[in-house]
Every structure is written in C-alpha cells, then in structure tokens.
C-alpha cells in the first residue's frame, strides 16, 4: 500500500519550510496544499482543531501538528536517509533545546517587526538582535549548528533567512552587516538542494509583507 503524505501549509511560513525541507532531505513524495490563512480550509480545521494553524502534516490520514514535532516525526518514520537528529543522546537533547529556543524567542519579535511601528517595532528589533547574537555565539566557527552535519537546528532556523531582508527593510536595520557568520551559515545551507528548493525569494516575502502593512494596517 502506497503511503499518503499531505502537507497543509502557506508558502511564506518559515515553520512550514522546516517540514518541506525535512521531507526533501528524506526524499519523501508528498502533496502540498496551499492554505488561505484568511479563509482556512475545512480540512485544516479538522486536522488541527486545537490551534487551527499551519503547517499540518497528514500521514496516511493521521495529522501531526507543530513543525519541530513534525520534523522529528519525519526523521523517525524515514530513518534511512540523511538523519536529522544526532544519534548521541546528549547531542540530540542539545539540538532539541536550541530548536525550542528558536521557537520561543523568535515568535514575538518577528511578528512585531512586520506588524508594528515606532517604539513597539524598535523594542522588537532589539529583542530579535539579542536572539541573533545568542545564535551567532552558539554557531561559532562551526559549519552548521550541530558541527559538520546539517541537522535539526539548521532546519529550525534557516527559514527565517528568507525573511531577513523584509525585517531589514520594514524596521530599518542590518542583519547582514552585524552577523556575517550567520549569513555565511545560511549560504552554506542554501547549497543543499532541499533548502534551495524550499526557501522563497526574499523579494517576494517583502512584497507580501509590504502589501499587508499597507492594506490591513495602513502602514507605508
């Protein structure tokens, strides 16, 4: 019996990008269904009744929610190609810690950067830069967050790279100038076919956010 893998997602979601990259890394064929976040599909509401959010991974009719959980699920179900989590228990725990750090520390400031102005946006900028400083320090001189191997933390964070240009433009600051190591890391990640295939054009992200700020928020 053929496996059925469906992903309910939105093209610009850095969280959905994680799942798509993991599926590409494993060579898993899947059906991608683009969601209209202003008019969520009945399937999305049925498959994720608690949070009602993308991404939702559906494997043989069974839903798995929350992107980091989905990535780990993919690694466990398809273990034969490109392991995402390290085999060593301590290293695996560290990877989970930093992935959780990214989720907890980026959600607030990243949302405010694109939706706020003035003092609130300035506060979000400072907060986000502190997160980047911490991640820059953790990366150090390593090729990837886990060392020489592309893994969970890289997948957890690389989607944000496609949003860096947008954050810089709408909040008037420079990530590229401040964090050359992180930019070099992102460029290494982009050499992987899975990442290059999934990450959207940064200009497309900027246009989408600019349109949202103008039409919905009345912000130029």
From TrEMBL:
Residues 3-82 form the GST N-terminal domain. Is involved in the conjugation of reduced glutathione to a wide number of exogenous and endogenous hydrophobic electrophiles. This is Glutathione S-transferase. Its EC number is 2.5.1.18. GO terms for cellular component: cytosol. Residues 88-212 form the GST C-terminal domain. Its main location: cytoplasm. It catalyses: RX + glutathione = an S-substituted glutathione + a halide anion + H(+). Keywords: Cytoplasm, Detoxification, Transferase. It is found in: Cytoplasm, Cytosol. Pfam families: GST_C_2, GST_N. GO terms for biological process: toxin catabolic process. GO terms for molecular function: glutathione transferase activity. Belongs to the GST superfamily. Tau family. Coiled coil: none annotated. The keyword Membrane does not apply. InterPro entries: Glutathione-S-Trfase_C-like, Glutathione-S-Trfase_C_sf, Glutathione_S-Trfase, Glutathione_S-Trfase_N, GST_C_Tau, Omega/Tau-like, Thioredoxin-like_sf. The keyword Transferase applies.
């Amino acid at each position: 019996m053929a496996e059925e893998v469906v992903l309910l997602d939105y093209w610009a979601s850095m969280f959905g990008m994680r799942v798509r990259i993991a599926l590409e890394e494993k060579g898993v064929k899947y059906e991608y269904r683009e969601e209209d976040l202003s008019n969520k599909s009945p399937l999305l509401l049925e498959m994720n009744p608690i949070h009602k959010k993308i991404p939702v991974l559906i494997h043989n009719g069974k839903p798995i929610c929350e992107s980091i959980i989905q990535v780990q699920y993919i690694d466990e179900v398809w273990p034969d190609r490109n392991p995402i989590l390290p085999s060593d228990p301590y290293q695996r725990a560290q990877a989970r810690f930093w992935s959780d750090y990214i989720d907890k520390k980026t959600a607030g400031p990243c949302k405010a950067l694109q939706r706020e102005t003035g003092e609130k946006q300035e506060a979000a900028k400072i907060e986000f830069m502190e997160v980047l400083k911490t991640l820059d320090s953790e990366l150090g001189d390593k090729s990837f967050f886990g060392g020489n191997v592309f893994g969970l933390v890289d997948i957890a964070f690389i989607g944000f790279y496609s949003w860096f240009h947008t954050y810089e433009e709408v909040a008037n600051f420079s990530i590229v100038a401040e964090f050359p190591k992180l930019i070099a890391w992102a460029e290494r990640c982009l050499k992987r076919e899975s990442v290059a295939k999934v990450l959207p054009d940064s200009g497309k992200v900027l246009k989408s956010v600019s349109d949202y700020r103008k039409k919905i928020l009345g912000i130029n």
